[in-house]
Specification:
This protein is α+β, with helices and mostly antiparallel strands. It is built from eleven helices and 45 strands. The strands form twelve sheets. Strands 30, 33, 34, 35, 36, 37, 42, 43, 44 and 45 form a ten-stranded mixed beta sheet that branches. Strands 2, 3, 12, 13, 18, 19 and 20 form a seven-stranded mixed beta sheet that branches. It starts with a strand and ends with a strand. Residues 1-15, 30-35, 428-438 and 443-461 have low confidence and may be disordered.
């Protein structure tokens, strides 16, 4: 029988998900209600009237710094500087090239704009990995950060009390230590500071140590609102339901649409899709529709009236999130999407092409063969959904305030992640269908004589990135550019197979080199990854052991070059001929000269990705869309190295296969006595048609990767790429060719290899 993947865990994971919901809610509400008392060392001192200007000066500084810190907390979802371990106790993972594998994500690709995932699946979501986690800070963690921020920024604000000298005060700081404490209340935030000073005036002196102030601002309201939104998003699978509805609404057996979840056709031809185009189309839909998401009852909420069919009604219903009946009239909620921040896979597919399953029923002497096309596709999708809560209240010290965080939308094989947790994922193969006999080699059995069966790793939270578990010796690595100059602030990370990976530090200038030294987790078969803005990244194999030091040779990062890219086409020259029996044959293929794209009707979508065992967590990646009334050129960022290039050429004029262009025998008795023309239901019109492309991948059915050297990239400022254009069927005899021509869409990889030397990019 069929079973659902995850069903054995259903009861356990149901408790896990309920526990996570309770954790999210209790996480905040407990700290909202039960605040710690104030230590004696922070008790406010009585200040004589003549010295109050000095105490007031300190408290004014505290107030200014706190206001700035509170704004930063909102901009980063409860963190001031998410990756700064001097301000936060959290160890957050940030992988810019793979945002859905991170704990924090940037809407702008700038490391200064990071926000945490309040709900996400760590790593790559799949039917083996679908457990939720959260990087949401507790209120205690927020208080800790604001206190550390106050300690760091106060010296800059006070400037040694220079401003008070003109007022007749001589202030001596008897210690350079600043010690702060923060208490977040319902409607305000209290700040306490210890910093010993001695004040001398014309009459007497005073030792002063403790200061306090408060900011009238209800940070807890934004925090509680975020908790409630995460709770509702988790229970209702809000973003996943929206994404599924979006795909359902814009899918069908048509190259202009997304591949459908399920459809069927008996046509004598198939419709195929380009992976790059599908991802680009879905990305464009998310860019268009995510801003239309709303929270019912919020400040700018506009109800949507729908009178269409059930599919349309379901789609527009999915655009609204419903919270409790609390007043939201002073809060606006905006949903934002990171352009091209999506990870997507559609199966079944082969290489760059997404194609249906084709079942062929063989013919007989009397009946022709027939085929049946099943368009059943499974989507795996993960993308960050940013949520901004913006409040308006003139009765607070921050009358307009923004609180920004992210959740991750996860669809696994067309199902929301919660479905997998509850044991209702897609049907899986049941081992009871088959009997398997395995001959084990010697040594596989353990000492007791029984077989040793490896167990899958449980989906519990990893401690890999907890710094107190890192027990290797000191590991040192130096980083330099291609010219040998040291590179400061290069990001260093460490990973262990596909188990986990985390950021560990940044290089610092040390004499004539830039290096990082520190401990790492113990791992056999691990790797260090190194990256820096403006440079390519590197991956270095590294096995670590307890208390064992290692010195890694200097790693040279390659500087990114920016070139202006254009794309031209080269047509496959191939003739299709029909004989007197209306049977078709194809002539040999050759390649024509370079031609400009027809910008009114042709468009090329091209993906250029750096590959190789030594490429780190930030592979150089470019997506080009050129033609069809769009741009004629676009900048690309490249480093010396090996590249995988795939492309799809879309012809808006399409391809038309004439009706009745061939015949099949329907009655065969010694000789064929009856024929049936195909296609018999009229011409086949494919407008637009994916009628070309490129496939430079390391795959038996593709043309192989290409290498661009430093000398290549430095030889010019322009790079011209090429895409294949499949044969012009209007040149066939007779014009239009027939069903045989549709097979050309499967030959892009073959042609890419056959004519590779003619298709390599040219730099000038």
């Amino acid at each position: 029988m069929f079973r659902k993947r995850g069903v054995k865990k259903a009861q356990i994971t149901l408790f896990i998900i309920i526990g996570l919901i309770l954790l999210i809610v209790i996480f905040g509400t407990y700290t909202l209600l039960k605040r710690p008392g104030l230590d004696n060392e922070f008790r406010t001192e009585t200040v004589p009237e003549e010295f109050k200007p000095v105490a007031g000066f300190v408290e004014d500084c505290m107030h200014k710094v706190a206001l700035k810190g509170i704004k930063e907390l909102g901009a980063h979802g409860g963190y001031i500087e998410p990756l700064n371990n001097q301000l936060t106790t959290a160890n957050l993972k940030y992988l810019p090239a793979e945002p859905t594998k991170s704990d924090v994500v940037s809407l702008t690709d700038d490391d200064k704009d990071l926000v945490p995932f309040y709900l996400h699946i760590p790593g790559r979501s799949s039917y083996f990995n679908y457990q939720y986690s959260t990087a949401m800070p507790s209120l205690s963690e927020i208080e800790y950060q604001l206190a550390r921020y106050l300690e760091r920024e106060m010296p800059r604000c006070l400037e040694g009390f220079k401003a008070l000298k003109d007022e007749g005060y001589d202030v001596v700081e008897t210690s350079d230590e600043f010690k702060a404490k923060v208490a977040i209340r319902d409607k305000y935030i209290e700040l306490f500071l210890n910093h010993p000073i001695t004040i001398k005036s014309s009459k007497r002196s005073l030792d002063l140590k403790s200061y306090n102030t408060a900011v009238r601002f209800p940070l807890t309201e934004y925090y509680a609102m975020a908790i409630q939104m995460v709770d509702v998003a988790l229970r209702s699978q809000f973003s996943e339901s929206f994404t599924i509805s979006l795909i359902n609404y814009y899918s069908g057996v048509d190259t202009n649409l997304l591949p459908p979840f399920i459809s069927h056709s008996d046509a004598p031809y198939i419709i195929t899709w380009s992976k790059s185009k599908v991802q680009n189309d879905l990305n464009s839909l998310l860019v268009s529709y995510v801003p239309a998401l709303q929270v019912a009852g919020s400040r700018e909420y506009v109800p949507i009236e729908v009178n269409g069919d059930d599919v349309e009604a379901a789609f527009f219903k999915s655009l609204s999130m419903n919270l409790s009946n609390q007043s939201l009239e002073n809060l606006s909620v905006t949903f934002l999407y990171k352009n091209r921040g999506m990870a997507m896979r559609v199966q079944p597919s082969r290489g760059e092409i997404i194609k249906p399953s084709v079942a062929t029923r063989p013919g007989s002497d009397n009946l022709p063969a027939t085929s049946s096309n099943t368009y059943r596709f499974f989507y795996d999708i993960a993308y960050p959904l940013f949520i901004e809560i913006r409040g308006y209240d003139n009765n607070t010290e921050l009358p307009e305030y923004s609180f920004l965080f992210a959740i991750e939308s996860n669809i696994i094989e067309n199902k929301p992640a919660l479905a997998w947790i509850l044991g209702v994922g897609t049907a899986d193969w049941d081992d009871s269908y088959i009997t398997t006999i395995i001959n084990l080699p010697n040594g596989v059995l353990n000492g007791s004589g029984t077989s040793s069966v490896p167990q899958m790793r449980s989906q519990t939270k990893s401690l890999f990135c907890e710094e107190n578990t890192w027990t290797s010796g000191d590991i040192k690595v130096s980083v330099a550019g291609e010219d040998g100059q040291p590179l400061e602030d290069a990001m260093i990370g460490f990973g262990c197979g596909d188990y986990d990976q985390c950021f560990v530090g940044m290089t610092e200038i040390n004499g004539s080199s830039a290096s990082w030294v520190g401990q790492l987790p113990v791992c056999t078969g691990g790797y260090m990854y190194i990256s820096k803005e403006g440079y390519g990244s590197r991956r270095v194999p590294l096995t670590t052991a307890a208390d064992v030091n290692a010195w890694i040779p200097t790693q040279n990062l390659k500087k990114i070059r920016t070139l202006t890219a254009t794309i031209k086409k080269k047509e496959i020259l191939k003739l299709f001929l029909r004989d007197n029996d209306k049977q078709w044959s194809a002539g040999p293929a050759s390649i024509g000269p370079s031609q400009d794209l027809d910008f009114l009707s042709e468009q090329v979508v091209m993906s250029i990705i750096e590959v190789g065992a030594d490429v780190g967590d930030r592979p150089v990646s470019n997506n080009l869309i050129i033609g069809k009334e769009g741009v004629a050129s676009t900048p690309v960022k490249l480093v010396p190295g090996r590249y995988q290039i795939t492309a799809t050429l879309i012809d808006e004029n399409g391809v038309i296969i004439p009706a009745n262009c061939t015949e099949v025998c329907t009655m065969n008795v010694v000789i064929c006595t009856s024929h049936e023309p195909l296609p018999k239901d009229g011409p086949i019109s494919m407008k637009p048609a994916m009628w070309g492309g490129l496939d430079f991948r390391d795959d038996p059915d593709a043309g192989g990767t290409i290498t661009l050297t430093a000398a290549d990239l430095d030889s010019g400022s322009n790079i011209e790429f090429y895409a294949l254009k499949l044969p012009d069927v209007t040149r066939s005899v007779p014009p239009g060719a027939c069903l045989i021509a549709l097979d050309e869409m499967n030959y892009i990889g073959k042609y890419s290899g056959q004519f590779k030397s003619d298709l390599l990019p040219i730099i000038s």
